[in-house]
Amino acid sequence: MIRIDDREIGLEEVAAVARGAKVELSGDERWLSRMKRSREILDRSLTQGQAVYGVSTNVGNRSSVEVGKESLDAHASQMILHHGCGVGEPLSPEQVRATAFARLVSLAKGYSAVRVSMLEAMCKLLNAGVVPVIPRLGSVGASGDLTPLSYLAAVLMGEREATFKGEVLPAREALRRAGLEPFVFAHKESLALMNGTSLMTAIAVLAALKFERTVVAAEQATALCGEIMHARSQAFCPLAHKVKPHPAR
Description:
The chain has 249 residues and is mainly alpha-helical. The chain has helices at residues 11-18, 29-47, 72-82, 93-107, 116-128, 146-156, 171-177, 189-194, 198-228, 238-242; strands at residues 2-4, 23-25, 87-90, 131-132, 135-137, 161-164, 167-170. Helix 1 crosses helix 4, helix 1 (11-18) crosses helix 9 (198-228) and helix 4 crosses helix 9.
């Protein structure tokens, strides 16, 4: 079980969740208070009539258009649906789980003004084995993985498709079979979930770990080859490698 709060997470923990490890939220009062305070700051700003990008306003070129107070939560859900334009083959279940975990870790830092209940819903999705179907192409890139992350958000609310026990199902049916209820996003939460680079981060983490394993295997194969061929050991003299201008194992 991997604990989630605002602590640093290692690459191996991301890989573990990608392979199926369970996650849980921390009960640390300091962290929970920080999460609550973040949400309170947002709500206080809205109560005071401040314009908050993507919350009380639209986004992008329409950011000058205000959203009515009675429509804030509806606007959060509509934002998810508007970004459902991914194309291509779906990402692997491991890549999707790593993406969901990376986003969960980011939101748990306490800067995104999301409710703890949203993080709980993400944990339940991971632990139940419901895997959103996310098309491989469509990321905006530097502006955030908006399109692919919208598929994660959509499945949380019971929209689009998800894989459950090896079967691709409508998201609402997948949630039902897993014993989960669709999550209802409040203002700001959909933008917080979508506007990040967690897909790129997850794929980079998995690729980096795979590369590390490949390097180790290559080093071991080289050493074994040297032994078999009775190679000259002078090539591996520590002094020769010590004078190179870069760190080495």
